[in-house]
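Look over both lines:
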Amino acid sequence: MVDFEMVRKHVREVDTPAVCDADKKTRVMSEAIRCRSKNPSLCGPAFTVQCRGDLFPVIRALEEAAPGDVVVVDGGGRELALGGEIFARAALARKLAGIIVDGGYRDVSYVNTCDLPVFSRHVTPMAAVANSLGDLQVPVSCGGVVVSPGDVIIADQEGIVVLDPASAIPVLEAAREVKATEAAVINKVNEGATLVDCLNVAEHYDRLAQGSPSTLRFTP
């Protein structure tokens, strides 16, 4: 089981681009899933919901999810609101880490000022019905990627990424190294170095010209 205190510690020192640079297999949700609140930063285990045109399963999830969980809703991308102001307030009261909906959300006049990270594909005033149980804590599709219960969800201004709990810590440690390298390169650039001075361009060019595998990398 992943140590989420350690995950959160690492996340405070990295961002989603560094995570993606550290692991090119990182699942990235579609940019169509957009932040609707004033705070885009979240980190927590996924509590998944699958529903179609029905918000009752989301109510169930908001009550069953543990503090620190991210409620991830597979609403099939439909343009129906599966949450709004009251749901966001309820999530804040439960100390959840955030709500991500592949579907609609509403009451953005409040949500825009809300500290709870809320992401959705659509903004719409039309709420879904509340007539079915749906499914909780099953693998779902959200923003074009598969999310399983307990997956590590990280979001910031750049987007939303999903990590396997078993590999999250090593990936985040690698992301910290990426940030350290970037900081060294930024210092060189600030001191007058060119971009070519900071990359293995000549070596990379020669290897590619020879048909050999190569990786373009910073050389701080």
